[in-house]
Amino acid sequence: MAPPLLILDGIKLSFGGQPLLDGAALSVSAGERIALVGRNGSGKSTLLRIAAGLVEPQDGEVFRHPSATVRYLPQVPDMDGFASVRAYVEAGLGPADDPHRATYLMESLGLTGEERPDDLSGGEARRAALARAMAPQPDILLLDEPTNHLDLTVIEWLEDELIRSPSAVILISHDRRFLERVSRATVWLDRSVTRRLDKGFAHFEAWRDTILEEEEREQHKLGRQIVREEHWLRYGVTARRKRNMRRLGELQAMRGRLRSHRGPEGVAAMAASEAAESGKLVIEAKGIAKSFGALTVVRDFSTRIQRGDRIGLVGPNGAGKTTLLKMLTGELTPDAGSVRLGVGLEIATLDQKREAVYPLETLAHYLTDGRGETLVVNGEERHVVSYMKDFLFKPEQARTPVRELSGGERARLILARVLARPSNLLVLDEPTNDLDMETLELLQEIVAGFSGTVILVSHDRDFLDRTVTGVIAPEGDGRWLHYAGGYSDMLAQRGGDRLADRRKAAPANPAAKATAQPSEPKAAGKKLSYKQKFALDSLPGKIAQAQSAIAALEAKLADPKLYERDANAFAQTAKKLDAERAALAAMEDEWLELEMLREEIEG
């Protein structure tokens, strides 16, 4: 293995109270690609800034190879003092660096270089910062949340670019698919210390769970040993005083280890407040369209969304996802066509820019709307401090101003408020931004298990695959299609294309697009009926709903006291479980037969 270009060893840093870093270590050699993972607030960004030389630790060793170049991508780039994006990007080049690479990166990231920094959107600013950090092809590239505010096209381009890059890369990201593709080693920052796995992020969770299980066993053994020693001191032979004093000292040391042990950080206990069931039809759109001047973002789009559907909207930034979302939920009137909303809808919305939060407002005031110390969640009155604990906030933070929260804490706070509102339709625009892995996993469970309807916009491919039953994606020229299944299913139905390939290949006008549609099935005179096509599209969503229902029923039956409490309820639940399993098997058989028929027709 090549000698390290960067070594951090025994790094300590504290801002008062519990140390943020206490003996943390990190090393990187040429060409390595390391995922740095950990909870929000665990110190990942701080450790990366120490590696970049922007923060000095209170103790520990920092070594950088004298000839190694280091470039750092911050979460919030500072473009003050630059007249254009090109000036900002080229300011990151060294004397021997190739300025043509800066131009190549800007063009690849959809920038001309003539943009004014003050006029950039969040996504454009992130792309400019990426171009600046990557242009010199540094020996070490430090990336803090590089995929934030990027669309799928750019994320996939960035993945390929980093995989080909000769630079050593250390990256922090909440995008699981991105980490799995790019990383070849994983460093876990947990409770102020680091652990390293010489495998990519795909292997992290199994490794982490093994460590935590072993840690739990060790603490259990230590507790048992303390009990035995205490028993010996009380009832053992007291004449051997010196030996007793030695064992008493060992016992006190063991008690100290047990008291000082910091267990794993808690897991948020988020849950969505559900309103009464809506009607079966939630949204019906017929031929809707929307234009802004000469730009048509939605053209002749129709869809039906039913109760229990979980729909993901995907596409490049600027394709019109938020516009389409607002039309579907009745917030924006289409230029043509109609949208009909179902009866009994209670909508809870998390918008892309997040709610406007007054920075001096306290957490408790924000969650309760200033209505005292309690709020109602799922029909139950909860004290605000108790509800805050579900989202991993400490009781003393109840009076903390919002401005003092980190990005991840702020995201959790806004989610806490949105999920407290009774709803049967969740509308989530980029809900995964700034969430750590554990909170993201819990949000996935909430969305996947929500009995109402969900419409969400996301660039997180793994999150989409784990949650949605359908995907609405742009086809170019303002046209959108509704696909069954998750993001990977959509790619498969498109013939394995990536969004980038599809967008580049999209014809510039409707006539050309019509000629570019897939050819008719090869089996002449034979095609799927409308009913068969509809079943083929809708069955994956129904199968997912059945699987969720089965999981819920199995969890209910797993309660050992259910039979004792209510034998009749136990019998009815078991009967319903059998019926759900039979229905699931029938749907899976039907889908398989239709899929085989489709493949036969298409040759």
Largest pleated sheet:
6 strands, mixed
CATH superfamily descriptor of the largest domain: P-loop containing nucleotide triphosphate hydrolases
- CATH architecture verdict of the largest domain: 3-Layer(aba) Sandwich
Strand content: 15-25%
Determine the CATH topology of the largest domain. Answer: Rossmann fold
Low-confidence stretches: 237-242, 496-525
Helix content: 40-55%
How are the strands of the biggest sheet laid out side by side? 5-6-7-3-8-9
For the termini, the CA-CA separation is 50 Å
Helices, by number, come to 20
Number of domains: 4
Mean pLDDT: 83
Number of strands: 20
Report on the structure:
This protein is an alpha/beta fold and 603 residues long. It contains 20 helices and 20 strands. It has helices at 44-51, 85-90, 99-108, 122-134, 152-164, 176-182, 204-235, 241-260, 321-328, 363-368, 384-390, 407-420, 437-449, 461-467, 487-493, 499-505, 510-515, 530-557, 562-565, 567-601, and strands at residues 4-13, 21-29, 33-37, 59-64, 70-73, 140-144, 168-172, 185-190, 193-197, 281-292, 295-306, 310-313, 336-341, 347-350, 374-377, 380-383, 425-429, 453-457, 470-476, 479-484. Helix 7 (204-235) packs antiparallel against helix 8. Mean pLDDT is 83; it is low at 237-242 and 496-525.
